[in-house]
Amino acid sequence: MGRSITENIRKDFPILDTKVYGKDLIYLDNAATTQKPVAVLTAVEDYYKTCNSNVHRGVHLLSQQATAAYEEARHKVGQFLNAAFSHEVIFTKGTTDGINLVASSFGRKFLHVGDSILISAMEHHSNIVPWQMICEERGATLKVIPMDKNGVLQLDVLPALLDESVKLVSVTYVSNSLGTINPVREIISQAHAKNIPVMLDAAQAIQHLPIDVQELDIDFLAFSGHKIYGPTGIGVLYGKEKWLNLIPPYQGGGDMIKTVTFEKTIYNDLPYKFEAGTPDISGAIGLGAAIDYVNYISLDAIQEKEHDLLNYALEQMAEITSLKFIGKAEQRASVISFLIDGVHPYDLGELLDKQGIAIRTGHHCTEPIMDFFDIPGTCRASFAFYNTRSEVDLLVAGIKRAAAILI
Ligand code: PMP
């Protein structure tokens, strides 16, 4: 168990002291990006102050130090995910980049005319569009696991969907719009029973749920550093060694090669084969510091606090009669999408903003979900462990005040 989370934790996040329009910031847009603790800010600053240098190519001390720090960050990520090998951890720009890497590399190698990729009805655009693009290129089709009106995947149709055309399943672990935690173990086990590999979009899971890639037996998994208290611009693609060796490089350039002549290039070993060009060194180091920080707080304590905030908010918000929840899965992360009858989400979001309350409004890069519910968008409040019950109270009071003005 980690330390219990008290309001003291907020001191670790300087931005939480910010005033907006003269009011205390209430930051409830954590599903879009999380705030950064001092430990992460310091790690990034220290890197630039003390060992800024390029990695993997310098004989000089600074370059060796930068390389060691960068590789240590990879090792930390590997341990956090319980990867069998550090070289199964590829640094990317983020979840989007990781999914594009797999779509492009796996697709070029394994997708043929008549094949298909299976995703779900609750994917972020970044787990739809890259697959559409590669399917179009390869003459394959995209198939979709449907969901019900509660925002729960309908797994009863999964056996039929997993026919022999399916070459890969790619689903989100947690929905960014609905908060639903998907039964990924069941999906993985059904797919594996038919020898179909599975990719997880863990953008909304990595900061909430312990993830053990070996226990999950997942083939590929992508996440973004900025959703787990790390910097923007850095992300991770985990891939089983077997798959990463089977698929071709995504991009060509420096670092991903062993030798180059005009006639032939020999590609580098894992993980460098997938890391062309100078990587985001400070980002990786910052992500390593974020993982240390999360380990220090502990995911157990984070989950406990976030569950409390989620349940408290659901209870309080349910008392607003004009409020409708979008997504009612029992298994869910600390994300709440809602609408107020007769009020456009954007108008509510704007009025809350003027009260210092930052929520997200719109389609949340999940237009198919909005089409499914036949709505233009939602208001979304998403909580992190540094939020408090009194912030939830202010959200609820803010919604009531805004609704009184708008209805
Ligand atoms: N998938 C999900 C479920 C997400 O929530 C997000 C970020 N909103 C992404 C993918 C894309 O992440 P990024 O923009 O950091 O690449």
TrEMBL record:
Keyword Transferase: yes
SUPFAM superfamilies in UniProt: PLP-dependent transferases (SSF53383)
GO annotation (BP), single: cysteine metabolic process
One Pfam assignment: Aminotran_5
The keyword Transferase is annotated on this UniProt entry: yes
GO MF terms, alphabetically ordered: cysteine desulfurase activity; pyridoxal phosphate binding
UniProt name for this protein: Cysteine desulfurase
